[in-house]
């Protein structure tokens, strides 16, 4: 057992044995008192609000935030909390003005005794969902509420996978000290993306000459010699069988990533993807060569273009380069559809660079009480 895990278990035991002085970390109890200031109301909830209007307000907030993605949608977030947050450890901070929801920031108490945005192992962008025009007001309310509810057993606030171009990098250092916190940040990962030109030939011209020739050759080889078929699966009846085919090969990854995929990710996707598809946020690409499926791309829709969440390949078809071919065809589709961005999401794999991707830093931001 690691030191952090041991410290987390000891702290959990202390919370059980010494509940006096606990506030926000107390697992059960009455609702927390709200904070009201300048026409705004900030609340800390122990569960998702159950009123019928809440989901509508959440959806409207997503539409108003230019950087919001499906990772902050009700379907994704509730699935993450249901799957990964133990009972009694969930906290939700909301800020409202009258009946308008301005901020929705979920937290979970982690083993390091921190309030952490949940879902970092399965979620690529975790920027807190806050009304863009009211960011400073909302975070002032959030930090003041957390200051009011803080207790001895907490060691800080942890915001993983925040975009490197987020306004939080300038805002939080300016205001957090007023509420007793120190600001820390560190680059945690990268989320490469490809800025798309208006034409396929324009995209190819951005690549290294060798890569450009290889992509053309491999597509031509797959189409002329392998009778390639490129499918975009959006039909509900075809989706689940294609997803199961993809997951069969996702399981074959070696090492820790394969273990995580088999033990955690497969079940999560099996439950989540049909729900995402039902609301129009999930699709799949499937590449067939020599009359059999050999590659799959699991895609999420966004206002700026497709996000490739996961991939799978049949290793016995490696002579056809199914990975390169499927990504190239997906990029070509995105250009044809007029999307400005093709998002490859988390991970610094070399093939993303060869496809012309640019790194977007993902930060972990930590606020520690002084």
Short summary:
With 370 residues, the protein is of the alpha+beta class.
Structure description:
With 370 residues, the protein is an alpha+beta fold. The chain has two domains: 3-190 and 362-369, Aminopeptidase (3-Layer(aba) Sandwich), CATH 3.40.630; 193-343, Gcn5-related N-acetyltransferase (GNAT) (Aminopeptidase). The chain is built from eleven helices and 15 strands. The protein has helices at residues 3-17, 52-64, 74-84, 135-149, 168-175, 200-205, 209-224, 236-250, 255-278, 322-336, 350-354; strands at residues 35-37, 40-45, 90-97, 100-109, 114-116, 129-130, 156-163, 181-190, 193-195, 229-233, 282-289, 292-300, 307-313, 341-343, 361-369. Strands 1, 2, 3, 4, 5, 6, 7, 8 and 15 form a nine-stranded mixed sheet that branches. Strand 12 and strand 13 (307-313) form a beta hairpin. Helix 8 (236-250) runs antiparallel to helix 9 (255-278). The chain is elongated and about 70 Å long. The two termini are 29 Å apart.
Query: What is the count of β-strands?
Result: 15
| DSSP summary: helix tally | 11
Weakly predicted, low-confidence segments: 14-18
Radius of gyration: 23 Å
Which CATH architecture of the largest domain? Answer: 3-Layer(aba) Sandwich
N-to-C SSE string, H for helix and E for strand: HEEHHEEEEHEHEEHHEHHEEEHEHE
**Kindly state the mean pLDDT as a whole number?**
92
Give the CA-CA distance, first to last residue: 29 Å
CATH C-level of the largest domain: Alpha Beta
- Considering the protein shown, what is the CATH homologous superfamily of the largest domain? Gcn5-related N-acetyltransferase (GNAT)
- Our count of domains comes out at 2
Structural class: alpha+beta
Q: Main β-sheet: number of strands, strand sense, barrel status?
A: 9 strands, mixed
Strand content: 25-35%
Helix content: 25-40%
Q: In one word, what is the shape?
A: elongated
What's the CATH topology label of the largest domain? Aminopeptidase
């Amino acid at each position: 057992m690691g030191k952090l895990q041991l410290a987390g278990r000891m702290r959990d035991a202390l919370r059980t044995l010494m509940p006096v002085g606990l506030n926000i970390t107390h697992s059960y109890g009455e609702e927390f008192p709200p904070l009201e200031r300048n026409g705004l109301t900030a609340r800390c909830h122990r569960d998702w609000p159950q009123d019928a209007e809440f989901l509508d307000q959440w959806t409207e907030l997503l539409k108003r935030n230019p950087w919001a993605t499906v990772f902050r949608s009700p379907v994704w977030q509730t699935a993450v909390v249901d799957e990964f947050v133990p009972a009694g450890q969930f906290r939700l901070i909301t800020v409202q003005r009258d009946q308008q929801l301005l901020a929705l920031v979920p937290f979970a108490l982690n083993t390091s005794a921190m309030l952490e945005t949940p879902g970092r192992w399965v979620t690529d962008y975790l920027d807190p969902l806050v009304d863009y025009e009211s960011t400073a007001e909302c975070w002032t309310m959030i930090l003041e509420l957390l200051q009011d509810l803080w207790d001895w057993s907490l060691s800080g606030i942890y915001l993983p996978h925040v975009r490197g171009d987020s306004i939080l990098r300038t805002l939080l250092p300016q205001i957090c000290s007023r509420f007793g916190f120190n600001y820390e940040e560190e680059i945690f990962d990268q989320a490469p993306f490809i800025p798309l030109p208006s034409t396929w030939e324009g995209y190819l011209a951005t690549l290294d000459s060798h890569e450009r020739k290889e992509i053309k050759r491999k597509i031509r080889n797959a189409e002329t010699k392998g009778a390639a078929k490129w499918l975009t699966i959006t039909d509900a009846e075809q989706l689940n069988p294609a997803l199961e085919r993809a997951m069969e090969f996702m399981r074959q990854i070696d090492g820790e990533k394969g273990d995580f995929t088999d033990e955690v990710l497969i079940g999560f996707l099996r439950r989540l993807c049909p729900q995402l598809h039902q609301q129009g946020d999930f699709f799949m690409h499937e590449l067939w060569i020599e009359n059999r499926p050999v590659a799959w791309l699991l895609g999420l829709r966004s206002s700026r273009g497709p996000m490739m969440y996961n991939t799978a390949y049949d290793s016995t078809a490696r002579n056809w380069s199914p990975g390169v071919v499927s990504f190239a065809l997906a990029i070509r589709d995105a250009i044809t559809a007029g999307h400005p961005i093709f998002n490859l999401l988390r991970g610094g794999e070399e093939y993303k660079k060869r496809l012309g991707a640019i790194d977007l830093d993902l930060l972990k931001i930590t606020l520690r009480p002084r």
